[in-house]
Amino acid sequence: MLRWLGYAGISRVPTPPALLRELSASPPAAVVIDMARAPSQGRDLGILLRRRNGTRFIPLVFVGGEPEKVARLRALLPDATYTGWKRIGPALHGAIAHPATRPVVPDSAFAAYTGQPLAKRLGIKPRMRVALVGAPAGLPKTLSPLPNRVQLSAELDLPPDLVLWFVRQPADLQRGLPRISRGIREAHVWIAWPKGGSTARGELTQQVVRLQGLAAGLVDHKICSIDATWSALLSRRRSRPKPTCT
After folding, report:
1. FRET pair for 141, CA 20 to 30 Å: which of 35, 97, 129, 187?
2. CA atoms of 201 and 115, how far apart (whole Å)
3. CA pair distance 40, 46, nearest whole angstrom
4. Which CATH superfamily does the domain covering 118-237 fall into?
């Protein structure tokens, strides 16, 4: 669509911080984010772009998406452009021609989750089986209040609907990933690590967790701050291509 309108673009899965560095070094005329494909990831990318000095003034154009989710995003980024694919041409032209001179900057990368209960932010729903693997003491209390009839377990004994896995060292992550990847089956897993880590010191960071997960066949698509100690990435097993008939 964009190429047909005369724009040269790139299409990729966002992988901060590498993508953010690339956009800072060579800012594009605009960033178009499809809210119908991965709304949480698209929203988080938009917030990250606004919070970074080198990308703050790049016009943001959000396309499509559920009205309720788009309304919440508008409250955070009111000076971005919101449109549908049928009007992407004039919307993109207007965004490039009239960029925000004083862009609104959200207070936090987690601004979209402010005020939401932790269980909701983690996607815990009624009747779910949630496995807490390597969890710190007191986590069930931190998660409360939980939706009705949620079952918490300490291991992957039963097929879970969701897994919260807490890792403290890079070696623990590398050693445990094969078992977790097999155990989650079609479920999602939050991989949590201690905040404040440094790659230079050989500690866990968001990028380390993401790259190790990708190597094990897990694709992440959401980040969450659990508490003052833990951050987490939501991942699931990479989809296998469907066989084609010949």
Report:
1. 187
2. 34
3. 10
4. Vaccinia Virus protein VP39 (3.40.50.150)
Beta strands in the chain, from DSSP E residues, in sequence order: 31-34, 60-63, 81-83, 129-133, 151-153, 162-166, 188-194, 218-225, 230-237
Instruction: For 119-140, write each residue's pLDDT tens digit.
Output: 988 999 999 999 999 999 889 9
Rounded to two decimals, the pTM is 0.64
Strand (E) or helix (H) holding 103:
none
| Residue partners of 115: CB distance under 8 A and separation at least 6 | none
pLDDT digits (tens, 9 = 90+) for 209-242: 988 998 998 988 788 889 889 999 999 887 654 4
The rounded distance, in Å, linking the Cα atoms of 99 and 133 is 46
State the Cα–Cα distance between residues 66 and 69, nearest whole angstrom.
5
Mean per-residue pLDDT of the chain:
85
Rounded Cα distance between 104 and 116, Å, is 22
Residue 17 to residue 212: CA distance in whole angstroms? 15
Q: 10 Å Cβ neighbour count for 57?
A: 14
